[in-house]
Amino acid sequence: MKKMSWLRWPLEHYSISLLIIGILFVMGIYGMYVMPKDEFPHATIRQGVVVAVYPGATSEEIEQQVARPLERYLFTFGEVKRSKTTTTSQNDMCIAMVELNDNVNNKDEVWSKIKHGLNSFKSQLPSGVLAIVVNDDFGNTSALLIAIESGQRSYRELKDYSDRLSDRLRHIPSVANVKMFGEQKEQISLYVDRQRLQAYGIGQQMLFSRLQAQGITTMSGSISDEDQQVPIHVEATENSVDEIANQIIFSDPVTGKVARVRDVARVVREYDSNSSRIEQDGHPCVLLSMEMTPGNNVVQYGDEVDKVLDEFRKSELPEDVTITRIADKPKVVAMSVSSFLRDLLISMAIIILVMMVLFPLRSAIVAAITIPLSTFVSVAIMYMAGIELNIVTLAALIVVLGMIVDNAIVVIDGYLEYLGKGMAPKEAAIESGRQYFMPMMLATICICAIFYPFLITMKGMFLDALQDFPWTITINLMVSLVLAVTIIPYLETRIIKPDKVSTDGNAITKWVQKTYDRVLDKTFLHPWMTMLIGLGVILISLLILPTLKIRLFPYADRDQLAVEIYLPDGKGLKETEAIADSVYRVLRPDERITGITSFIGCSSPRFMDAYAPQMAGRNYAQFIVNTTSEQATLDLLADYQPRLSEAFPKAYVKFKRLDYLSVPELEYRFYGDNRLAACGGRTTDGAHAPDA
Question: Of 4, 299, 415, 673, which is most buried, counting CB atoms within 10 Å of its CB?
């Protein structure tokens, strides 16, 4: 009895106990709104891309002269995961997707070493290789994607608005970076008339030479199929179209006649129609990608951005220019927190209803109080420990919602039992806590220990993501244990009075107890039968296990999906644009879609932690499709994926549900030197077979 005398202290000094728990409870409510929040835990992205540029080389030459030597060199680094590192050979360039081993935590140091080594390795490649570019900045995720779009404004005007908005947004302390995408640079194009050139006796090379001699840099472009015109794109080193048009390119010393650029060509200031671009609902747009400094509250971050956007709309933005949030992480996280609080209230109601059937109402109220008390005290401890609120820690809090009431129920049941034996309420509360404390503590420790093997078995990003999961569960369950022997005894003496409740139980509890006693008697009378039944249940469970769907992380419940359009290598932007426009025209009339952001010849920034940006080219397009609801997203995927995935010859349209798992569900890779295309073709044919 003396050994457990500390259990008497919280009840005898209940004012101090209530003060401490009350402070922690209020701190938990406060922390729920101000503590660091993000959608996904911070994880080390161990991926990067190495691009070798070799103008004029075919894909076969790239494969032999660049890809293979580059791959061999990358494999000399022990930190590189060979099974996940691949190279792709295209005309003019080689792209190597490099992944580091799961045990690499100092990725910046490793990439610095790789970059330094590649600078020396470049001398071993053909002299035509202009550069080797390394991009290891794959881990920065956009907290917000904001589109500035208009159907009446030029890209230059949209960029001006974007620059001014960016300057305002950078004043927010939690903003880490603001990047601009979709900017289109103006150029001055010369459309040359061959017949006029011949009339003046000027050749194209002479024209180029004269322009270069006068400080104008020409750039080679696509040649028109028309006989009379050859488009020649020129960088706008001059400020005026008239200045270039009036440049003298030929003079006759005998007659004194001169020929100017305008005499042989049409000079136009325009945007390059062959460059990649971004559109919002079919209108030109410039995209701002906003990143948040780690350790901040993304919901508050979104509120601060909203204030800046509202002020900018009122003070500087004309009516024909619209600002649209495309990817909105603050909204996603706010909805997750709201869903958790909703589940918290639902669980309290369920506990009260269930316990009203088996226990008196006053007992049910005491048990239900444990849920918010334990949850918010745990959040206060998480807040002080620097644990952020994200999908993993919220999942941990939800997992233990049904467990944190167990200790309270055990203590309350013991209290009612001792009241029935004639004990005073205070002594019954203390004795109940004393008797059940050690069994409850051992059970709590065992439950907590179940989750720590995650930290041993998981590797790489999964380990990074799950670091706080077992700790969150441990904090919550330990808090519920402490509350069960400190605060619950006080609530018992104040709410559950001997003259207010029945300690004998009701008809349901008596029937349950009698049924349990009969079953227990039979198990002891037939021990072998009991063991066989237990083994049978285990065997059935093992048989059912392979049929269950298993996922480490769930799909992302978002009112958003992605569409990726792939064309074969070598296809131009015009073909990609035509297919993307066809897909857009099919999707846009659908009332379940609120907006479509098109990336033609380029890809979006990483707008979700597990959605890696693609290596885009002229043969690639992407849509970010925003929908009216999460259910609408699922319905759209079910409707359009079968219809459009292979509706276009030589193009594949992939509708992608956003997922917290970045690993493809099914992937085939062929290794070897010969007949790879044939193997890939046979595999593709087999996958499309009716019985596949």
Answer: 415
